[in-house]
C-alpha cells in the first residue's frame, strides 16, 4: 500500500511539474530542480607503493538537487542536494579490524578481496547551461563539491579457504569530500568525481602513509 501511495504521489508531482513548465513563457523566472542518478567506473588512487591497482570496480548514486537561480534567464544557478551513494571495489589492500584497531597488509595473494561502502551525499554545484524557461533540452556544465557521510563499510576477503569480513572498521574516514564535474546535453551527461579526502585516517603500511582516495568517471542522468 505504501508503494502504491508513493507511486501516486510521484506521478502527481511529475504531472504538476510539467504543467508548470508548459505555462512558462520566455523570460519567466524558473528553476531546474532535478532527480539525479549516476553510474561510474571507480578506481582507488594514491595507493601505497606495495599495493597493485584495483580490479574492476563501480559506483552508483542517486538523489535530489534543488536549483537556486542566480539570474533572470535561469541559465546560471547553484544546486544543493542530498542523496545516497554505493561503492563496490575489487582491491588489493588487506584490511582487518583486530582489537578495535584497523590493520593493513598486502592483499595481492588473497582471493575475493572486496570493499563495499554506503554513503549519504550532499552535493553542491555551480551550474551553467544554455536553457531558458521554454527550452527543456540544453547543454550544461556543472561543477562543485560533494560531501559524504559513510554510514556503512564492509571489507571482505578469502584467505586459506576461510572467509573474513569486517564491518565499520575504526580506521575508515566517515566524513569525506571531493570535487565533481559533469557536462553534456539533455538527460545524459559525462561525470567525474575525485575524492580529496583519504578514505582511511592516520593509517600506515610498512611505515608508508595510506593516502588512498577514490576516482570515479561515468555517466550521470538528470531527470525532471
Structure description:
With 224 residues, the protein is mainly beta. The longest helix is centred in the N-terminal third of the chain and has 22 residues, at 2-23. It is elongated and about 65 Å long. It has one domain (28-223): Porin, CATH 2.40.160. The protein is 10% helix and 58% strand. It contains one helix and 13 strands, in the order αβββββββββββββ. Residues 2-27 have low confidence and may be disordered.
Can you write the helix and strand succession as a string?
Answer: HEEEEEEEEEEEEE
Indicate the low-confidence ranges by residue numbers. 2-27
Mean of all residue-level pLDDT scores: 85
The CATH architecture is: Beta Barrel
Distance from N terminus to C terminus (CA atoms, Å) equals 25 Å
Globally, the shape reads elongated
Largest sheet geometry: 8 strands, antiparallel, barrel
Helical content band: under 10%
> Count of helices?
1
CATH topology, by name, is Porin
CATH class descriptor name: Mainly Beta
According to DSSP, the number of beta strands is 13
**Count of domain modules:** 1
State which percent range the strand residues make up.
over 45%
Strand ordering within the main sheet: 1-2-3-6-7-9-10-13
Computed structural class: mainly beta
Q: Work out the radius of gyration.
A: 21 Å
Describe the structure concisely:
The protein has one helix and 13 strands. It is mainly β and 224 residues long.
Amino acid at each position: 500500500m505504501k508503494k502504491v501511495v508513493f507511486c501516486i504521489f510521484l506521478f502527481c508531482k511529475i504531472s504538476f511539474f510539467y504543467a508548470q513548465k508548459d505555462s512558462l513563457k520566455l523570460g519567466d523566472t524558473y528553476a531546474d530542480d532535478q532527480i539525479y542518478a549516476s553510474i561510474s567506473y571507480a578506481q582507488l588512487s594514491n595507493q601505497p607503493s606495495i599495493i597493485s591497482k584495483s580490479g574492476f570496480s563501480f559506483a552508483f548514486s542517486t538523489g535530489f538537487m534543488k536549483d537556486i537561480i542566480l539570474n533572470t534567464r535561469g541559465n546560471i544557478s547553484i544546486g544543493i542536494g542530498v542523496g545516497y551513494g554505493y561503492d563496490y571495489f575489487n582491491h588489493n589492500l588487506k584490511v582487518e579490524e583486530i582489537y578495535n584497531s584497523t590493520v593493513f597488509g598486502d592483499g595481492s595473494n588473497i582471493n575475493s578481496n572486496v570493499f563495499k561502502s554506503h554513503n549519504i551525499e550532499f552535493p553542491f554545484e555551480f551550474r551553467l547551461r544554455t536553457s531558458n524557461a521554454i527550452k527543456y533540452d540544453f547543454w550544461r556544465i556543472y561543477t562543485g563539491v560533494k560531501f559524504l557521510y559513510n554510514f556503512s563499510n564492509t571489507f571482505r576477503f578469502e584467505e586459506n579457504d576461510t572467509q573474513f569480513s569486517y564491518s565499520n572498521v575504526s580506521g575508515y574516514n566517515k566524513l569525506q569530500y571531493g570535487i565533481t564535474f559533469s557536462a553534456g546535453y539533455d538527460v545524459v551527461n559525462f561525470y567525474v568525481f575525485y575524492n580529496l579526502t583519504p578514505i582511511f585516517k592516520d593509517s600506515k603500511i610498512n611505515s608508508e602513509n595510506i593516502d588512498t582516495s577514490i576516482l570515479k568517471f561515468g555517466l550521470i542522468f538528470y531527470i525532471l
